[in-house]
Amino acid sequence: MNPVTALIAEDEAPQRRALQQQLRAAWPELDVVAVCEDGVSALEAVAEHRPQVAFLDIRMPGVSGLDVARQVVAQGGLVVFTTAYEDYAIRAFEAGAADYLLKPVQDARLEQAVARVRERLADTRAPDLRTLIDDLEARLRPQGDRLIRWITASVGDSVRMIAIDDVLFFQAQDKYVRVVTAVDEAIIRMPLKELLGGLDPDVFWQVHRGVLVRVQAIDRVRKDELGRYQLSVKGRNDVLPVSGAFQQRFRGM
C-alpha cells in the first residue's frame, strides 16, 4: 500500500521545522512531498504533487492557507489548519475540517490530529470544506479602517498621494514596488505582502508572486508561444505575468 502523501505550509521557519519533526514521530510512514514557506510555493506544490493531506497555516504572506486549502479540497485532499487564533480553529473543527492545531503545536494534540486524519482517509463521506473556507476568509478579510485608502509614493524628486481607487496594479521590482494608475506611476518601498494585508481581496488579485492587479482593470489573459500566461491591463501597454499558481483564477471567465 502506498504511503499517504502530505504537504506542509508554514511561513515561520522554526515552526515549520518543528512540525516536520513532530510529524516524523507521530506518523513515520507519512510521505511529506513538499515543505513550503509561503502560499505561492504551496499552491505550486499542490498542483504538482496533489497531496492527500495538507498541514496549512491559515495566515501566510502573499497567498493565505485558505487559498491553498481550496485547491487541496478541489483535488480531493484533506486539510489540517495550523493557527494561533483559537476562534478560527474551533470553528474549523466544528465545521468538519480534518482537524486543527493551535500553535505552538503540542505532540499529544498532533497525535490526535493524525488519528483523525487517518479515519477520514478511510471514510469516503468526506465533508465539504468550501463553506468553512469561505467563512474563515470573510473573518480574515480587512475591515473598514484596516483597508489602505491612500498610497504615499515617490514620483521623481517629489512625493505624492495616490488614492487606492486610482491604482490599476502593483508590481514588485527589486527592493521597490511600482504603483501604476491610468495616467501615471510611482515607486513605494512597502513590500507586496504588507500591501496584501490592507487590500480588499475582491478588488485586487494576486496573479504572480510579484504582481497585484485590480480585477476591474484586467483586459484579457493570453498564453504566449511557450504556454505562459500573460495579462494585459485596460488603457495600458504593460504585459504582466500570471504564474501557474494563480491561473485557476481565470478558468471559466
From TrEMBL:
Domain HTH LytTR-type: 151-253
MF GO annotations: DNA binding
Record's protein name: DNA-binding response regulator
Keywords, sorted A to Z: DNA-binding, Phosphoprotein, Two-component regulatory system
Biological classification of the source: Bacteria, Pseudomonadati, Pseudomonadota, Gammaproteobacteria, Lysobacterales
Family annotation (InterPro entries): CheY-like_superfamily, LytTR_DNA-bd_dom, Sig_transdc_resp-reg_receiver, WalR-like
Modified positions (4-aspartylphosphate) in chain numbering: 57
Keyword hit for Membrane: no
Residue span, Response regulatory domain: 5-118
Organism of origin: Pseudoxanthomonas japonensis
